Amino acid sequence: MTIGLVFAICLVAANLRTGLTGVGTLLPAIERDSGLSSSWGGLLSTLPLLTFAATSPLVARASHRFGSARLLVAALGALAVGTVVRSLPSVVCLFAGTVILSAAIAFGNVLLPALIRRSVPAHRIHGVSALYVTVMGVTAAVSSGISAPLAHTLPGSWHTALAWGVAFTVAAFLFWLPRIRGDRPQASSGATHSPVPWRSRVAWQVSVFMGLQSLAFYTAVAWLPSILIHHGTSSTAAGWMLFYYQLIALAASGLLPLLTRGRLDQRWTAAGASVLMAGGFAVLLSAPALSVLACTLLGLGGGVCLVLALTFQSERAAGPGEAAALAGMAQSVGYLVAAAGPLLLGILHDSANGWALPLVVLVVLSIAMAGAGYGAGRDRQVSHPAR
User: Fold this and answer.
1) Per-residue CA distances from 279 to 240, 253, 301, 302, 363 (Å)
2) Same structural domain for residues 177 and 306?
3) pLDDT above 70 as % of the chain
4) Where are the coiled-coil regions (predicted)?
């Protein structure tokens, strides 16, 4: 493993959320200028998660046929195209570009654990995964923060602001392009394709853990300010609490490798982090005035769970092919569950006329995540779909 490889992985990570997180802050301007209703605006926000779920299972077979590095370079090219298309002054281009760039990001999401499994020593997978999660989180937060100011200062308003992240995409594309020379597709060497391990208990535990932590994160991002405002917090303070939650999650994801160095058995770490998230939701339910404590617990648990969910996709696979297949399954299931989360919580809120029932559901799901995390955290590998 070289510093150049780690930098290349971080460049890809910088592209996996940047094009998505700025949309929320720009959505009011997009709806106003494009004439979109709130329903269509909601679809625009959910479309990436649905695209992730639909695209992720296709990546392993494509990687086997064309090679991981080659496919990643193609995905980065498609990401650049999709980003530009999305910024064009057309509602059709807005949605079409979103689908293209989301599909490209889905390929990157699945390919990165496989590339890490192939190129990084086993004892360093955890650290490299935490590093790329940190880079992904930092660039996502920066995108959320600067998109609106860019829309006010750059010509083209929100159209231009939607496209600023293409600079990261071009840099990653140019950095990975020379690496395709030594990338030999597994199909050309006669290696068999690793099927998606739908019949593996460990694979399902990894997938359910991925899905529930994604649901908790996207639900918190979507509804945490509304929950706090409902209990009397100002909109400005609620926004800062959301920022604080993400900041704590970033700190937790960065510190995790220092606390678990050299340990492949992560059962109690995954279960404990899930319980922390359950505690955070429980505090919001029972003592909403303690929002700082709630967001601290949610951030600590969420940051650890995200790193573990991505690490398991590399560590629980016997090789790069199996890692791509496992990552495809975990992210397909995960993002499908995540896409349903904010919608389900909104429906529960409307039907119960309050946040008590949705928060009870989140506490229960976090406890279920602890069970899935305990199973996924065992030092075992998915090497055959029948295992």
Assistant:
1) 21, 18, 9, 12, 7
2) no
3) 93
4) none
Residue 24 has pLDDT above 80, yes or no: no
d(CA 246, CA 253): 10
Residues 253, 127, single domain; the answer is no
Q: Where are the alpha helices (DSSP H) in 231-352?
A: 235-259, 267-286, 291-315, 320-352
* 265 conformational bin, left if phi > 0, alpha if psi -120 to 50, beta if neither: beta
Distances (CA, A) of 64 to 59, 99, 116, 188: 9, 24, 16, 9
Q: Which domain holds residue 227?
A: 201-376
CA distance 295 to 302: 10
How confident is the model over 84-107, as pLDDT tens digits? Answer: 999 998 999 999 999 999 999 999
User: For residue range 367-384, what is the model confidence (pLDDT) as tens digits?
Assistant: 999 999 999 998 887 855
51 and 17 part of one domain: yes
How many structural domains compose the chain?
2
3-class secondary structure for 344-370? HHHHHHHHHCCCHHHHHHHHHHHHHHH
* Residue listed under structure tokens 């890490």: 116
Task: Please check whether residues 207 and 168 belong to one and the same domain.
Answer: no
What DSSP state is assigned to residue 192? P
Please calculate the CA angle 125-278-243 and round it to the nearest 5 degrees. Answer: 70
pLDDT the model gives residue 384: 54
- CB proximity list for 39: less than 8 A, separation 6 or greater: none
Global pTM? 0.77
pLDDT digits (tens, 9 = 90+) for 154-179: 888 889 989 998 999 999 999 998 88
Residues written for the chain: 387
312 within 8 A of 377, measured Cβ to Cβ? yes
The candidate with the shortest Cα–Cα distance to 306, out of 187, 132, 176, is 132
| Cα–Cα distance, 125 to 121 (Å, whole number) | 6
CA distance 295 to 244: 7
Q: Which residue stretches of 124-266 are H helix?
A: 125-153, 158-162, 166-176, 201-230, 235-259
